[in-house]
Automatic annotation (TrEMBL):
Protein name: Phospholipid-binding lipoprotein MlaA
Keyword annotations from UniProtKB, A to Z: Lipoprotein, Signal
Family to which this protein belongs: Belongs to the MlaA family.
Record carries keyword Signal: yes
A GO BP annotation: intermembrane phospholipid transfer
One Pfam entry name: MlaA
Gene Ontology CC: one annotated term: membrane
Entry keyword Signal: yes
Biological classification of the source: Bacteria, Pseudomonadati, Pseudomonadota, Gammaproteobacteria, Pasteurellales
Amino acid sequence: MKKSNSIKFWLPLILATTIGACSSIDETTGQRQDPLEGFNRTMWDFNYNVADPYLLKPIATGWKEYVPQPAKTALVNVANNLDEPASFVNRLLEGEFSKAMVHFNRFWINSVFGLAGMMDIASASEGLRPAGSRSFGDMLGSYGVGTGAYVMVPLYGPATPRQDLGRLVDHTYPALSLLGPWSVLKFSVQAVDRRANLLSQDPILAQSQDSYLTVREAYFQNLEFKVSDGKQGSEIKETLSEDELKEID
């Protein structure tokens, strides 16, 4: 491995581990810590009242109403298929070898027989149905690494050091590392599709007494649910997933 590539891998790893070492819960009070709440609320107002209604929502509406369903399915399948190798590696790092092999087999089967992933051939087998992507941040969370401070990022949405620096590590794995600037297209397809799937749920957020708190708590509840593979947070109320909430901003 070249020196530059080595730095590219280890720097996000170190940052994700050290910055994310703190918990989002105050151990003495049991309350959610939100040291950047003033900034976060300002950014939430911008995202919710400006960025979404004037940018992402119109694009998502056009995607839902005018793009043919076969084309949408093929594009989303290709994008999701590219997440499988990173999920495979992160499962291995957890010691979840059987789950890692599901991601591995899904990737090569759909890539070879599914026309580069446009068709989800692997799901025909009950044992190879999609179980959701597994990010480096999820893997760190499974070992008890804290999320770090909650941040509402303009034009992006909810973020924490563990999860989002972890995504930088995911980008160092093939095939994502081989995409280069083309990875923007992959994430754009996933973002627009997720936002389109949320259009019918917009009233839930609109009727909330405090939309900022609703999004923040749903973000952390879904993180717990995802990190624990569904073993925690099973009583989450009807709300949005981590990635879906991110895409509404």
